[in-house]
Amino acid sequence: MPEWWDDESDAILAGDLTAALGYRTPAGGVVVLAVAPIGLRDREAGTAGFTTSLGFSRKLERIARDPRVALAFHAREHGTADSVRYLLVQGHARVVEEPSPAERARVQEHAEARLGPARRGPFWDRWLREYYAVRVPVWVQVERLTSWPDLRCAGTASTSGSAPAADPPPSQTAPGNGTGPRVDVARAARRVRGTAHALLGYAGSDGFPVVVPVDVESVGDDGLGLSAAAPLPPGARRAGLLGHSYRPQLIGLESRAYTGWLEVGEDGRALYAPHTEAGYRAPASKTGLLLLNGLLAKRGVRQARRAGAAKAR
């Protein structure tokens, strides 16, 4: 058992209903998405987990190419942890594409304990076949735990595990087609502000993603003015922005994910220019959510199969 994995951190990993996953892009940026950790962790092995669908092939391909990831445990509502700490887990991810029967049973047990019992019957067995069949665990070999005294990341951070880099990451080369916004900035601000949690992700000095909470303070033609209690690295770089909300058992999900360009001045002022956006709002009912999950899983599997066939040719 790692000596630096304390009881409070373990309770957060066991109890939080959701976490924000940060993973690397080929261009050196970070994408931030909400995932369901469902309490998957192995303290003795030093691993933390979450679940995902094999239908989300782009995310999995990028994790396979660069397994450096971060999991930000940033929200306590609807979970069991009572800590007020923000916990950032950094490490190397491994997707279990073909779980054993024991691994599938473990995921199902953890999922039902936190998300409610699985729907069964002739219709649901057929409709959710791909959703359950391609739902797999991802295990992160934890290299570092960083925590702040509160969920806004105010105060001094404490780190356990491997030591972080002493210097902030250098600025990145600007994209050839410009750094300005490429999507509607006012709409992006409205959507992110309409969610309960907003998080920013960027690559740290050692390449591991860093994910911290932010607020959208201002809106202009050149981007979103962001503020953060945690210090952001000065300079310019690719970054991901996530706004999301959820209800008990992850019903009524809303997710707004962006990639873009972040510029931080020496005074700490941050300007974010969104380049791409993706998002959804799930029905606020268990039945509606399962219908949507089944549809998305079927669509994702079909797309993954077509992509695999194209690569084979």
Walk me through what this model shows:
The chain is α+β, with helices and mostly antiparallel strands. Helices cover 26% and strands 36% of the residues. The strands form 2 sheets. Strands 1, 2, 3, 4, 5, 6, 7 and 8 form an 8-stranded antiparallel beta sheet that branches. Strands 10-9-13-14-15-12-11 form a 7-stranded antiparallel beta sheet, covered by helices on one side. It has helices at 7-15, 57-65, 101-115, 122-127, 129-133, 185-193, 286-312; strands spanning 19-24, 30-35, 41-42, 47-53, 68-73, 86-95, 135-148, 158-161, 197-203, 209-213, 215-220, 223-227, 235-245, 254-264, 270-281. The chain has 7 helices and 15 strands. The termini are far apart. β13 and β14 form a beta hairpin. It is globular and about 60 Å long. The longest helix has 27 residues, at 286-312. It has one domain: Electron Transport, Fmn-binding Protein, Chain A (Pnp Oxidase, Chain A), CATH 2.30.110.10.
Brief write-up:
The protein is an alpha+beta fold and 313 residues long. The protein has one domain (7-159, 169-312): Electron Transport, Fmn-binding Protein, Chain A (Pnp Oxidase, Chain A).
